[in-house]
Design a protein that fits this description.
The structure is a single chain. The chain is built from four helices and seven strands. 36% of the residues lie in helices and 34% in strands. The protein has one domain. The strands form two sheets. Strands 1, 2, 5 and 6 form a four-stranded antiparallel sheet that branches. Strands 3-4-7 form a three-stranded mixed sheet, with helices on one face. By secondary structure, it is of the alpha+beta class.
Length: 188
């Protein structure tokens, strides 16, 4: 898996609509850009370390701790870009259109990246990446004779099926004492 380096787990297409305007000497110019772009959600598998892959023999489960997803792009589709503007005199006398187009392109690329980082998009990318990794690790296990083996891939930001974290809760008596201590500090 590490030799494969990068796994493209998910690809999405977004569209950004940005508008910029300028005013000089009482004249104004306005330009709007509609720019589609593709974003890739990738896993850098070279970041997998031996400790990230553990085998639990009693449950026949291979646990894989994945590196966080990286967003590549956006790869803008200039052929599908659309620009609209109204500039009149200002556009005719200055380079306002070029400046507005440049500002729109920068804002559009930033907007495409922002859209790509949305919670729904990231959840879909995580699901796709987990499924791809689980399939990729399950195939060699099945070929090696572990027909009932299970692969569980998780990201560092996700929880675990291990309930041992419940043992770390604060005991009731300590929680009451801490609440009383805080209340006393606020009253001072």
């Amino acid at each position: 898996m590490r030799a494969q380096n990068r796994l493209i787990a998910f690809v999405a297409r977004y569209v950004s609509v940005t508008t910029s305007s300028a005013s000089t000497f009482g004249f104004s110019s306005k330009r709007t850009l509609i720019l589609p772009g593709d974003v890739r959600y990738e896993l850098d598998l070279s970041k997998l370390q031996p400790g990230d892959v553990t085998w639990d023999a009693p449950s026949k489960t291979l646990n894989v701790k994945l590196p966080e997803i990286e967003i590549a792009g956006p790869d803008v589709d200039l052929a599908s870009a659309q620009e609209y503007g109204e500039g009149g005199v200002l556009s005719a006398l200055t380079n306002a259109n070029q400046q507005l187009d440049s500002a729109n392109r920068a804002k559009a690329v930033a907007d495409l990246r922002k859209q790509a980082q949305g919670p729904v998009q990231m959840r879909l990318a995580h699901q796709a990446a987990r499924a791809a990794i689980e399939r990729s690790f399950a195939m060699p296990l099945i070929a090696a004779g572990f027909k009932d083996a299970r692969v569980v891939a998780r990201f560092p930001t996700e929880g675990t099926d291990d309930a041992s974290y419940l043992d770390l809760s604060t005991p009731y008596d300590e929680a009451i004492k801490e609440a009383e201590r805080r209340r006393a500090l606020r009253q001072k």
